[in-house]
Write a structure and sequence with these properties.
Layout (H helix, E strand, L loop, with lengths): L9 H9 L5 H19 L2 E3 L2 H16 L11 E5 L26 H8 L3 E6 L33 H8 L5 E6 L5 H7 L2 E4 L19 E6 L2 H11 L17 H7 L5 E5 L9 H16 L3 E5 L7 H16 L18 H12 L2 H14 L4 H22 L5 E5 L14 H5 L6 H6 L3 E8 L5 E7 L5 H13 L11
Parallel strand pairs: 2-3, 2-4, 7-8, 7-9
Antiparallel strand pairs: 1-3, 4-6, 5-6, 5-10, 9-11, 10-11
The chain binds glutamine (GLN).
């Protein structure tokens, strides 16, 4: 078989496995060899366990030989953002705080993928505790964009996006609180899906901002995303915000839903700060849908301007509470210098957390403090409702909303030293999290400098089947995703 198995889509590999043209061991070896060849440059992995992956692949092959294959994920190597628990493996959140932590249990998504027969592959780098847009905030290493190693892969799930683009996994998982799946997917030229809040269990995901966090897949194609979503979605009694809803056959639905759709273009998303080449690529995508008979309508999301401000109040408030558990006592980094218990808390946290995490904890504690709570946190919650209402109003007229994913292609490492400049990377993605909606980024072109550009489609709550079909229609007419970076 081809020596480039690692660049093939999941569904194609599943067919090759099913017809016994390849084995999972062969596929897993190809991914491992590729990782060893390129990861010194891409720097996407925090850790991997080669022997464990090969043992899982071997089990998958035995199952298949016995006629007991479990479906399209059986035997497929999947990488995990290093905030998703895998029993017996390191779980670091790319923080010194958890540098030596080994997870005692599986996240629900891990359990589900294991039951589906997937090969649990390595753990992928991120901005510390998922706070950032470039993966430069990792305490361990900055991951590089495979299309230009001097540039960032986006973040916070930069390792998940970069490893997939570089052929170091067949699919990966990330988490998205304000854009952390869609933005790196756009910058690395792969598909990234953030599901509706509540569709995928958060049990076993290291919490950043619990009312915004959602796990989702990175894949080479929209069909692959449909398969992965089918593998991880569903109600979970271990996550109290998990929603009871029937999970459709997302992959099967792709073929049934053909449009034409009514697509909304929010005028607030095409203003200042949008790179002209990104704007042009998105305009071309709009023209494509129009030619296919879709109705294109301008819509308004009037509270868009408040999105970043509201997000940085709510997300920091929730993170200050979630990260209080890292006290140096129960688990995580413990300072060796402490004089007494209070000093131990202070020093362990001072030594264990990086600058961006500390900034967020301090901001979050401030907006929750008495006297400021009403002025900041409570007001932000009210504006959040208005932002959600904007989207729901728009959905009276359209089936989905189309926007750029990121205002610019990948920027240079070290280019954005001002936190505010970094926060603005998420202007187009944050509203989706605040409103709890599903959003997908699909490759829609390249800049003149050869950097990938992403198109964002935003769907209605729990209408992932429709959203995926709309994205699939675009992908069928283009071959952006078939290009690979030269490494
Ligand atoms: N970049 C945003 C932040 O820094 C979003 C991160 C995320 O989605 N986890 O908070």
């Amino acid at each position: 078989m081809s020596d480039e198995l690692y660049f093939k889509p999941l569904t194609e590999l599943a067919a090759l496995l099913d017809t016994k043209k390849i084995s999972s061991v062969e596929l897993t070896r190809s991914v491992i060899a590729r990782t060893k060849a390129v990861d010194a440059r891409v720097r996407a992995f925090n850790s991997y366990d080669e022997a464990d992956a090969l043992a899982q692949a071997d089990e998958s092959d035995r199952r298949r030989a016995a006629g007991k294959a479990r479906g399209p994920l059986d035997g497929i190597p999947v990488g995990f953002k290093d905030v998703i628990a895998v029993a017996g493996q390191p779980l670091t959140a790319s923080s010194k705080m958890l540098a030596n932590f080994v997870s005692p249990y599986d996240a629900t998504v891990t359990q589900k993928l294991k039951h589906a027969g997937a090969v649990v592959w390595g753990r992928l780098n991120l901005d510390e505790f998922a706070m950032g847009s470039s993966t430069e905030n990792s305490a361990f290493r900055a991951t590089c964009n495979p299309w230009d190693l001097a540039r960032v892969p986006g973040g916070s799930s930069g390792g998940s996006a970069a490893s997939l683009a570089a052929g170091e996994a067949i699919a990966t998982l990330g988490s998205d609180t304000g854009g952390s799946i869609r933005q790196p997917a756009a910058l690395c030229g792969v598909v990234g899906l953030k599901p509706t809040y509540g569709l995928v269990s958060r049990y076993g995901l290291i919490a950043f901002a619990s009312s915004l966090d959602q796990i989702g897949p990175f894949t080479r194609t929209v069909e692959d995303a449909a398969v992965m979503l089918g593998g991880i979605a569903g109600h979970d009694p271990l996550d109290s915000t998990s929603y009871e809803t029937k999970i459709p056959d997302y992959r099967g639905e792709l073929k049934k839903r053909k449009g034409p759709w009514r697509l909304g273009i929010p005028k607030e998303y095409f203003g200042e700060g949008l790179d002209p080449e990104v704007g042009a690529a998105v305009e071309n995508a709009i023209a494509f849908y129009r030619e296919r008979g879709c109705e294109i309508k301008e819509v308004s999301l009037p509270h868009t301007d408040y999105g970043v401000g509201v997000y940085y109040i709510i997300a920091t408030a929730e993170c200050s509470s979630n990260l209080a558990r890292y006290d140096g006592i129960r688990y995580g980094h413990r300072s060796k210098e402490a004089r007494d218990i209070i000093d131990l808390y202070f020093k362990s946290r001072a030594e264990g957390f990086g600058a961006e995490v500390k900034r967020r904890i301090i901001l979050g504690t401030y907006v929750l403090s008495s006297g400021y709570y009403d002025a900041f946190y409570l007001r932000a919650q009210k504006v959040r409702t208005l932002i959600r209402q904007d989207f729901l109003n728009a959905y009276r007229e359209v089936d989905a909303i189309l926007t750029p994913t990121s205002p610019t292609p990948a920027f240079k490492q070290g280019e954005k030293s001002d936190p505010l400049a970094m926060y603005l990377c998420d202007v187009y993605t944050i509203g989706v999290n605040l409103a709890g909606l599903p959003g997908i980024s699909v490759p829609c072109g390249f800049s003149s400098g050869g950097l990938p550009i992403g198109l964002q489609l935003i769907g209605q709550p729990f209408q992932e089947a429709e959203l995926l079909a709309i994205a699939h229609a675009y992908e069928q007419g283009h071959d952006w995703g078939e290009r690979h970076p030269k490494l």
